[in-house]
Every structure is written in C-alpha cells, then in structure tokens.
Amino acid sequence: MALIVQKYGGTSVGSVERIQAVAEKVKQARDRGDRIVVVVSAMSGETDRLIGLARAIQQPPAPRELDVLLSTGEQVTIALLAMALDALGCPARSYTGAQVQVLTDSAHNKARIRDIAGARVQADLDAGRVVVVAGFQGIDEHGNITTLGRGGSDTSAVAMAAALNADECQIYTDVDGVYTTDPRIEPRARKLPRITFEEMLEMASLGSKVLQIRSVEFAGKYKVPLRVLSSFQEGSGTLISFEEENVEEAKIAGIAFAKDEAKLTILGVPDQPGVAHKILGPISDANIEVDMIVQNVAAHEQTTDFTFTVHRNDYTKAMDILRATAESLSAREVLGDEKIVKISLVGVGMRSHAGIATRMFEALAREGINIRMISTSEIKISVVVDERYLELGVRALHEAFDLANAD
Amino acid sequence: MALIVQKYGGTSVGSVERIQAVAEKVKQARDRGDRIVVVVSAMSGETDRLIGLARAIQQPPAPRELDVLLSTGEQVTIALLAMALDALGCPARSYTGAQVQVLTDSAHNKARIRDIAGARVQADLDAGRVVVVAGFQGIDEHGNITTLGRGGSDTSAVAMAAALNADECQIYTDVDGVYTTDPRIEPRARKLPRITFEEMLEMASLGSKVLQIRSVEFAGKYKVPLRVLSSFQEGSGTLISFEEENVEEAKIAGIAFAKDEAKLTILGVPDQPGVAHKILGPISDANIEVDMIVQNVAAHEQTTDFTFTVHRNDYTKAMDILRATAESLSAREVLGDEKIVKISLVGVGMRSHAGIATRMFEALAREGINIRMISTSEIKISVVVDERYLELGVRALHEAFDLANAD
Q1: How far apart are the CA of B80 and the nearest CA of chain A, in angstroms?
Q2: Nearest 5 degrees, angle CA A70-CA A76-CA A77?
Q3: A58 chain-B contacts, CB cut-off 8 A
Q4: Structural Rg of chain B based on CA atoms
Q5: Could you report the per-residue pLDDT of B184-230, keeping only the tens digit for each?
Q6: Which residues of A are less than 8 Å from B79 in CB distance?
Q7: Which residues of the sequence carry a binding annotation for substrate (chains A, B) (predicted)?
Q8: CATH 3.40.1160.10 fits B3-174, yes or no
Q9: Which residue among B64, B78, B83 places its CB closest to the CB of A61?
Q10: Domain spanning A254-400 has what CATH number?
Q11: Quick check: pTM over 0.95?
C-alpha cells in the first residue's frame, strides 16, 4: 500500500466536469489500494480574476491582503473536489494551507515553505479518507496567510510528499511527460521514461516549463521521487529519479531552449578586481535577473570584454544602466542584441564523456549557425545564437545526438 | 474615543466601487477618532455563484465542504476592503473567522458562535489599524471551517462587538433604519429614531427583514447597543436600545406583517392531554415550522378545535399530514386556507396600557376587515386576516395609532 501525493494544476481542475474527472482518477488510484493525498491549484482563470479585482482597488495591492485574496482560489477547488469524491462514495476531507499547517516564512506573495505538520493528514489517511489540500498557500508563524507565488502548487505537493515520506509525488499536468525537446519545434521529440534530478533542474531552468524549478529543487533536496503525468491521457509519464543509469552511454537527456533573451556587451573595461561587481551590481539592484555571464580577455591589453544576457523585457532598462556604468568605468563601447536565443544540451552523460561539445558545435556549424556565446556546466552546454536559428539549431542537435530513438 | 463595530452586507460591498465607498465611510469614522472594526459579507451574488458550483457537483453538497467553499466569499471581501483602506492611507488588516478565532459549534451551515478571542483584534486596534473581519464564518474546536447560515454576518458583528465590549454595533444595510411599517404599503411610515430590543425582536420575527433575528437576540443577550443605518445615505438610522422611555404614553413602535402564511384547522378532536402534541408532532417531524397556534373549546362538548399557521410553501405538505392525523384521532373535519396574512401591532407601551387591543380591533372593524385568528404576547397583538386586506389593514392601524407623527 503506497502513499501517493497527486497534484493537479489549474487546467486540470478548470471546470466542474474536469474536477469530476480528477475525482474519478483519484478514486481509481485509491481503489487500487493506495493512500492518496491530492494537492490542487485554483481553477484556471480564477487567480487572474482575483488579481484583476485587487488591481482595480490598489496598485500594487498590499502583499499581505493579496495573499488573503488569492488563497481563496485553491480553497474553492479543494471544497469542490472533496464534494466530487464524496459524491463518488469516496470519503474525502479538504484542508487549506493554514489548516494543514503549511508553515512558511513571512515573504508574502513569494513565501518559502519551512515545515509541514503531517499529523492531521496522517490521521485522515489512517481513517481511510482521501485528503485534499490547497496548494500554493501556507501560513506564517503569526498566523498570516501566505502564498508561494505562481506555480507554487508543485512545490506544495513535493513538500507534502516529503513531510509524509510519500512513495511518489505525481504532478498531473497538460503534457504527458518530459520530452527530449519541445515537440512543437521537433515533431520527432521523444518522451523520456525517466530523467535524473540534475538533468530536470537544467531542463526546467532553461525554459522547459513542465515543472516549476523550485519544486524540482525541493524534491531533489528531500529525495522525493517525482513523476510528471497527463491529467487527460493514460500513461506512466516521466519519472524523475536519483539513479544515474548507463552513464557510460554518454546519455543526453534533451535539448532545452530559452526564447526572449537579450545580450549586452561592454567592451574595453579595465581588467582589475571588482569590475564584474561594478558592472552587474547596478543591474541586480534594478531587480533585473542576469542569466549567462561571459568574460574574455580583450584584444587591448589591461582591459577585458564582458557579456551577459537578460530577459528581453528587461533589455532597455539594462542597456540604460550599462551605458551609465560604461561611462563611469571609461569603457570603450557598449553593444546589445535583443534578437538572440539560448539552446542547451543537457545530460549527465557528458560528465564522463569528452567530445560532446565538439559534436554539438560541429552540428551547428554544418547548418551555418554562428555561435555568439558559449557557457558550460557539468551536465549542460549552452550556446547563444541568433533568434532566427532557434528551430534549425534545435532540430540539428536532436538529430546529431539521435534523441528520437530510445537508448 | 469610542470602539465601533461596523457591519456591511453583500449589497454594500457588491462591487469594487462600493467597496471603495465603504472604505471612505470607514476612514471618515476613524478620522473622527473612533477605533473601528469592520465586519463584511460576501459580495452580493458571490454566495449564490458558489452554491451553484457546489450543486453542479453534489446534491446536497457535503456540509463540511460547503462551508470551506462558502467562506471564501467573505475572505475575498475582507482582502479587497483592507486594500481599499490601505490605498486611502488608512492602515488596515483583514482576518478570516478562523484567524480571529470565532469559535463555533460544529453544526456546519448553521453553526452558532460560542466565543471570540478578541486579543488579536485588540492588538491591531492598539496599533492604530482598522480591523476587517469576515462575517458569517468561524471555526470549530477541531479547526474545521464553519458558517453561520445566511444572514449570519449580522450575528458575527454583534458577537464581535460583545467580545470587544464595543460602544456600538452599527449594521449598514440598504434601508436607512427601522420604520413604523413597510413604506411600500404605507407611504406615511415614519423612521423610528429608537426602538427597544423587545420591540425589535417582535418586529424582526414578524417579517420586518431589516435585521437578522438571531443577531438581535445576541445583541439583547450581551447588551450590545445596535444601530441600523444606510450604506448609501447619511443619517443616524435607528438605535436599538435597552431603555424604555415614556412607556406611559402607550407607545406603539410599529406594525409588522407576514405575507405568505397559510392556516390549517382541525375540528372536533378529543379534548384530552397530549392532543396538541399528537397534532403538531408530525408537523415538526416533517421540518415544518409552525407560527401561530390557537386552541378553542369547540361547540361540541369533550372536543376541541385547533388552528395553526405555517409558511405557504409548506401548506400542501402540512395539510396531508394533518389529514392523516385527523383520521387517527377521529377528528370531525380538517379545514385550510392559504390566502391569509398576519398583521401585528408591536410596542412595549401595551404592557402598561389596557385598551390597545380594543382600539386595534375597532380600527379593523371600521374597514370591514374580518379577524380570523388572534394571538397576543406581552408587547404584541397579532391578527390573521384574509390576504386581500393586508394593505388596508396596515394603513388603518398606522392611522389609528397615529404612527406617522413622532410622539
């Protein structure tokens, strides 16, 4: 008898009919003999509706009160799902984040979970009930309602699974698993039956939006086996696990990409300690997130060239800041390009295998794709290329590493 | 510096604009130097929307889960009102029933308040904040969310005022006070500047729907001065107080009435102990509420005639039950009339004054109105008349007791 935490997102519970379909799925799992805890999001559209009400009143809305408001979204879903289960003859009980004691810090709108008191849930499971818990929300030490920020329901589910020492945390979503790359770009993309946590983290952080990155970190930290499945189709989805099998085969998990990037370069800055901080400090002070950072020795001696990428929305603001910095540092020139994308090859296999990077660069060169920046980590190689090469680059790499065929 | 609890109903907070108008009103009161606690209902229409969702899933909805669902209605309002106050520069904090610890029994959908922990609210008031509390909801001793049933927000406000030992509980509604009778029937109806609790109880229970009757009982029990005011107009409304002034003047507070009544009579039942219970037991077992009860010695000896009234919706069901009872009691006959109304004269003055009943009957007789039933209490005389005499009867009594003119 396994203990399973299932999580259903906003689309999966987006209507009365879909809530009833989720109830059927949950009941089936329980009828197989498993003990089930369900974590749900707000019905799709509800959070936006509530934010609309708040913004009509205050801009920006008071963070504490916004959490009181938004947390009603999941509260509606838990009640309706518990009713739907009850109507199927499956005893169920709903709990808000506050009731189940999802203790968070006090950072309203983006709180982090500190602890979950599992006792109450455990008692209901022992009594044969399905427990339905509101995702995305918690309570701070003073009893104030908090929310984890958008997508936080995945994290709630993983944290609940960790607190209950569950056998598996299943994230039901509108895709049926993790693919070698986006099937909309490469139709031959293949669903991975399993992927390691490290690979999933890289895939998630590089723009593969199947799972919220924080939930993957959380699952990795607490060793919760995570599975991504479809709410609407049958299938066993993708298991995210700790075992690294067959690393000898130079396994590449997949190709992630990030659109909407922009690149900024400052040329000819004095090559001395502290210069990176002088350049990036004002950028992060303006709340702009920096992604890739590359520094090269410049052609002129005693100076260096410095390039970094930001989200395209932040490009203009970042450019203004960088120009001011350039002036104060007496830099030679500032360059920018907002028509670039990042393509990344991810796989634990590259740890033990040389030659992956070469094969990657070769495949891109064969298609005449010019590489503008390169950055690597232990299990990932990222390149920045012109926006127009996105689809071509992804397909070339998918082919070069034979990802359409299971290894 | 007075401590005032203000309560705004669903219509008063029915839109973003109305919530902002309420915030202005609250801020004005605070700027006058008072400490303010605001209790609010769900935005009008919201509770019906939620009930619609629940019914689409389960009929009837599981009571515990229905409370989880419905309590989101007020939670949305408290957050929005706190934002609106904050936007006006008036520091505010919202609390759900669970957060403020409105402790109730476990009777879901119709819970009764047992206790309110005022400490948290008091601390915020001390810190200069307006406290916004969700009406209609509480929490039971096991931490389950409960609701007080429709209209329960009035009771929440009164209970909060009692717990905080407030100077006044102000109920803002869509009428500007309590009238001598319904102005739609008698345009000369006059707003009462004050009325006693007993009178208000009789008025409320007799169909004057300004206040929820349970909240009046609660206010009476805990000696909370209650004031009814309009959300939309200026004015000091009607104060419901304990002082009975000028009772020498044979003061009549007003004329209440109940439409949609129906009358059932059973003739010739054996006049022996327990017969009333035999007649009314099956009626109340069927969850039908009985209003007036009149028993007379019948023309035939050893038997009695028994008449009672019920809501018109229950008439057919009650008639079927009564016919079965009549058979088992060998009663002579069963009669019914579903076209009757009840008109009542209410006033503490009648305690010390004889002749009020006579004046009432005389006024009705003058208009040719036949009285079908009479029932009296210490401060009330009710008569049942044919439905078609409702308006005429009310106006005749309003005139006979000179209610259009302040005494």
Answers
A1: 6
A2: 105
A3: 83-84, 86-87
A4: 24
A5: 899 999 999 989 888 888 887 665 667 777 888 888 888 899 999 99
A6: 54, 65-66, 68-69
A7: 47, 74
A8: yes
A9: B83
A10: 3.30.2130.10
A11: no
